[in-house]
Write a structure and sequence with these properties.
homodimer, alpha/beta, six-stranded mixed beta sheet, five-stranded mixed beta sheet, 11 helices, 11 strands
């Protein structure tokens, strides 16, 4: 029998914890035969949730952690002082090899700091970026770095490009993924200093499929598979993308409810829109992977329901089965 | 009689030049009694277009310019070498006081470079930013800088905030406009080095209504009146906003055409959507003003039709009538 993939899940993180997180874990073990899940958090609360479900008891184990880090805490202080928090205990399991991956819908700051301090970077990796899978009109793209390293340097971006390509190829299944650098024009002379410093490194790199600049206008149209930028820009892109879609939907709904005629029309178009909305729903694609660490760290939306947790478990299984950490190690070692 | 506001319009710039540009100029003089327009470009072409319309002949004058700068030319080289181009001739009229403002739908790069080199900055203004009026669910916001100065410094951003506030108050008519700095979180410690350097300057500034950080997610919802950032971030925001809206509309149209039922629904919702689309249409708000110069420079979309030119003329009239240049001068001098 194939060895089980071991995943630590922070049962206490997110707006819907622990109920939806536990539910997602149960759905995941019922869907995947090759996974063992450790639910990390307050034992009594998790037990109570688990009692509602039928599942293979041998493949979900509770790991007690008495503390919870909440979103308002300072990430560095919280990770350092709350050694018995669900995030720290879960991440520590990865560092100690007790788990292959960790999933949390908790504080983004704490997850990122913990990724660096608790899980630890692969030797040779200068910075560990957070990547996000974003839906486009053509499928999905990987936006990297979308939140971990502001003021990153060119050498960091080069590594992000490599790690993003490996992830996209092995976990998302896109062969020879194209990489483009976020820029404010396609011409050679365009860009800020970081773009100008990074461009030659990307051009010289033979292990990625670099296709040049991407203007943000083209991102929703799926211009490239890996969208490369430093974390300030990436975070602005990610949040604006979400915000524009939500503002648009809000205005749209208001317009549909504005008259009897439009209400009737709304009923008729509902089925056609359902599919479209599903395609544009980020939670269909699991969580945001933090790459370059000694194991996978997946950050799910704070608003995650069971579905996103279940899909994130699938992400972690593929990550482990395809030995993405090993591939990153080999790749980074080879280049440095 | 009140003195006429004099506006130089680059008749040769944009995808629809000269036809739509000339048409827009005619519409503008027919709408506004207090404006005189100089149409700058190839005399014979402009004359031919003008021949189609009825208007007050005394208020449109052709200024011949034999050359045209196209979008593919290097902006600095083009501005320096093509002294008889429509952009340079039109901008020179502002520098020499023959016009109060200049409008162009031509090469953005050339307009920006010409703004600095030909029109010239107001004394004390360190950098001249390009601002864009963007539609939100609550009305409009001013995004400044959306394309002129990448790698700007904190002192530049402070001036952008002041100039943006003056524009928003006097031209758009928003009293005591709120200003927020684009950031990747609302907490004090968030941000890149530029944000950290700029934040204290904005907090100390008594002449603006600074309300702190804005996450890009909130921009479409009209979180603040003036959205402040350096030009790399601003350009990414502007283009992603446009790109997301267009991708969304594309997917939406496809969904509506996917079945007979949804096609019927589409017919019913059409009138309700028309209003919504009009509200979200950037061309309803004229062009992007470049501020801090010895006169107003307005950059219209390359795809501008007559409507955007006509509205931009209205922008220029208000700018002049409210003496925005004088107010910027007074404000910058007072502070430096």
């Amino acid at each position: 029998m194939q060895e089980l993939v071991k995943i630590a899940i922070d049962a206490m993180g997110g707006d819907n914890a622990p109920a939806e997180i536990v539910k997602g874990a149960v759905e995941a073990v019922n869907e995947h035969k090759e996974v063992k899940i450790f639910l990390v958090g307050k034992q009594d609360l998790i037990k109570k949730e688990l009692a509602q479900y039928t599942f293979d008891q041998a493949r979900i184990e509770i790991v007690h952690a008495a503390q919870v880090i909440d979103n308002n805490e300072h990430p560095v202080a919280a990770i350092r002082s709350k050694k018995d928090s669900s995030i720290v205990v879960a991440q520590k399991m990865v560092r100690e090899g007790k788990a292959d991956a960790v999933i949390s819908a908790g504080s983004t700051g704490a997850i990122l700091v913990g990724g660096q301090l608790v899980v630890g970077r692969i030797k040779g990796v200068e910075r560990a970026p957070l990547a996000a899978i974003i839906p486009t009109t053509k499928g999905v793209s990987l936006l990297i770095d979308c939140g971990a390293n502001v003021d990153a340097r060119a050498s960091h971006l080069l590594q992000f490009a490599k790690m993003g390509s490996i992830y996209m190829e092995n976990v998302v299944g896109k062969k020879n993924p194209s990489v483009a650098l976020v820029n404010i024009g396609l011409e050679e002379e365009k860009g800020n200093q970081l773009v100008k410093d990074t461009m030659p490194l990307l051009k010289e790199c033979k292990t990625i499929n670099f296709i040049g600049s991407v203007e943000s206008r083209e991102i929703p149209h799926g211009w490239c598979d890996v969208i490369l930028c430093e974390a300030f820009t990436g975070n602005v892109i990610l949040k604006l993308y979400e915000g524009t879609a939500s503002a648009f939907m809000g205005k749209f709904k208001k317009a549909l409810l504005s008259s009897t005629r439009s209400k009737l029309g709304a009923l008729l178009i509902k089925p056609a829109l359902k599919n479209m909305i599903k395609e544009m729903d980020a939670s269909e694609y699991g969580g945001a992977p933090m790459l370059g660490l000694n194991g996978l760290v997946v950050k799910c939306h704070g608003s995650s329901k069971s579905k996103e947790i279940r899909i994130a478990v699938g992400q972690c299984i593929t990550f482990k089965r395809e030995d993405v950490t090993g591939k990153i190690k080999a790749h980074i070692a080879q280049e440095s």
